[in-house]
Amino acid sequence: MMGEKMKVKIGEEIREYQDGITYEVIASDYQEAYQNTIALVVANGKIRELHKKAFGDQEISFLTYTDTIGHKAYVRTVTMIFLKAATEVIGKEVCKGLKIEFAIGHGYYCSKRGDFEITDELVNAIQKRMEELVEQKMPIKKKSYPMDEAIQLMEENGMQDKVKLFRYRRSSSVNLYNLDGYLDYYYGYMLPDTGYAKSFRVIPYDEGFMLLMPERKNPHVLPPFVPREKLFHVLKETAVWTQRFGIETVGDLNNCICSGEIYDIIMLQEAEQERKIGEIAKEIVSREHVKFIMIAGPSSSGKTSFANRLSIQLKSLGKKPHLISLDDYFVDRELTPRDEKGDYNFECLGAIDVEGFNRDMLKLLNGETVEIPSFNFKIGKREYDGNVKHLSEDDVLVIEGIHGLNPKMSHALPEESKFKIYISALTSLNIDDHNRIPTTDGRLLRRMVRDARTRGASAKRTLQMWGSVRKGEEENIFPFQEEADVMFNSVLMYELAVLKQYAEPLLFSIQKGEPEYFEAKRLLRFLNYFLGIDSTRLPNNSICREFVGGSCFKV
User: Fold this and answer.
1) CA-angle at 160, arms to 158 and 162, nearest 5°
2) How many helices (H) and strands (E) does the chain have?
3) What does CATH list as the number for 70-227?
């Protein structure tokens, strides 16, 4: 009952507070003990936004900007401030076409479709208005609306992307956020007021804006923006393709599934991927000195399926491709470097016999015959079982592994003998115009489904490992992605609707109280936006088959 006292346990300390006090007030009493700003609280095992009121005895812990969930709340809040400021500066009607597209490093690209020119003066005006909103510490209010009323409000505000999204929501209500009259929907938690978002910058980029924010590891410092032109080009190309076929958001995809047109879209996208793989093969063949095709990309990017499909295209052009995995050049397990926790670090370059690889490749390049090793993962040692290679004029090696783009991996090989390909699943679909789908979410779900199918691993185990996998990618893959001759986007706009049926039972197995529970719940809420697609009608060479099963390749 309001007015009564409640006991709050934080760590080993128990304090009394008045029933009905906000979590923000409680957090302020403990902020000095934290280096980074408190963004959210966990109360009795449930994440709560700071504006919420607390009732009854409870145990509380805090999430800061350095926690993944806290950082995402920061990003959403800055995004809403940006859209609010842009609406005021440019005009509500013109701003209806603004879309948060994808991330480039710590920048978030926002495209435009309104009839206005992006000038330095315009960008400075938006930045200034954002800073004013932050200075005013304006509350971001959250209110639950009946679904019919929410749909009507979105229609009145010209947000048709959200109208389509809400029509497929199973709940009877939906939460909307209000910032001084600017109404919007966001997937996930928000900060209580604009004053919490102190570091950001808006710059003009390409044909839109780049919204820069701090990285999670250092959330109060805005690092300089480093353009990644090749990555941006591939992401933009994919966005244009989805726009052409009218499937830019989850609502569009669900409409397509309901209309029965989805299998035509599947065939179209599979054909588009095959066309691009064919173009890459033609470019390789046009370079007469290429003998080593180095394919690298982060976890669950579809490297193996891509390598097989590329090999088929190369064969059709008269080449004789031979698949090699860099994993077969792992050092014996007892020689593998260990990380700071004392665990084997299979992601680092030191886990590979780099000199042995270069020695073998140089011999092949010089016309010698070489026996390629095979790594036995059960006993942790390399074995030799008669896999002999000799490169004739038409032979090429298709080499797949996470270090393929690192110059140190192939340091002894002439540059003209190498063709480097970066592959990743770069998400092209948005939840709606203002809620992007992180590329890592798609790859995580791919890996979770494949781990369960091929290794019998639980979703809990995949989530436990994901942090170290991501750390390895950031250290060993992403720094070299711009070194690639070609980038290939393996994402399929329909794939999350396929993965949904496989991933949901795995995620539901994670119980409340387990460390992975919050991430499992987030992913389940995310998958709830999608209608499902039957996988039986997917082509057997589809990259999606690498994860759900039924591939014609050994994946």
Assistant:
1) 110
2) 15, 23
3) 3.30.980.10
Q: What's the Cα-to-Cα distance from 285 to each of 40, 292, 307, 391, rounded to whole Å?
A: 54, 12, 15, 15
pLDDT at 404: 95
Nearest to 233 by CA among 482, 41, 457: 482
**For tokens 């009259």, what's the residue?**
181
pLDDT single digits (tens) 147-184: 999 999 999 999 999 999 999 998 999 999 999 999 99
Handedness of CA 112, 117, 120, 125 (dihedral sign): negative
Q: What is the DSSP string of 114-129?
A: SS----HHHHHHHHHH
Residues of the chain with CATH 3.30.980.10: 70-227
Going by C-beta distance under 8 Å and a sequence separation of 6 or more, which residues neighbour residue 279?
A: none
CATH class of segment(s) 5-64? alpha beta
- Positions of CATH 3.10.20.30 in the chain: 5-64
Contact assessment for residue 501 and residue 530, using Cβ atoms and an 8 Å cutoff: no
Token look-up 């919007």 returns 184
In angstroms, rounded to a whole number, what is the distance separating the alpha carbons of residues 183 and 159?
10
3-state helix, strand, coil in the chain (%, to 5): 45, 20, 35
